[in-house]
Amino acid sequence: MAEREPQDYQYASESLDQFATYEDYLDSQLSETDLFYLEDEELARQLVELGYRGSGETLRRDDFEARKRAERERNAQKTSAPKPLASAGKDLSQYPFLAALASREDLVRNGKLTVRGALCGEL
């Protein structure tokens, strides 16, 4: 049997951020009926982890941790990488209105200034 990559599993397209722990992830694959008949939450989790119960293929603990870590790093990069200003490097000297907007762009992006404008004209 070929070894599978973590992204091949059921939650590959879903975010694991919704699960604080591996146990929460396992619990998400259990139904009320499972818990009713098994009467032991830990046993039910073990069955899901072994692949005997649950929906789809289950991530192993180390794959779950690796995916969580990768998601945290990806989210950290998104928040720490500032987007360049749209007006950066553009010569707007011929366009006074655009130059005025460009001078306010950074403040607007950071929420320190709100710009309301209406563009009127005939089409």
TrEMBL record:
Which residue ranges are recorded for the region named Disordered? 61-89
Instruction: Enumerate the InterPro entries for this protein.
Output: DUF4464
Per the entry, what this protein does is:
May be involved in spermatogenesis.
Keyword terms of this UniProt record:
Cytoplasm, Nucleus
Question: Compositional bias (Basic and acidic residues) spans?
Answer: 61-76
Q: What is the lineage of its organism?
A: Eukaryota, Sar, Stramenopiles, Oomycota, Peronosporomycetes
A Gene Ontology term for the protein's cellular component:
cytoplasm
What name goes with this protein?
Cilia- and flagella-associated protein 299
Q: Where in the cell is it found?
A: Cytoplasm; Nucleus
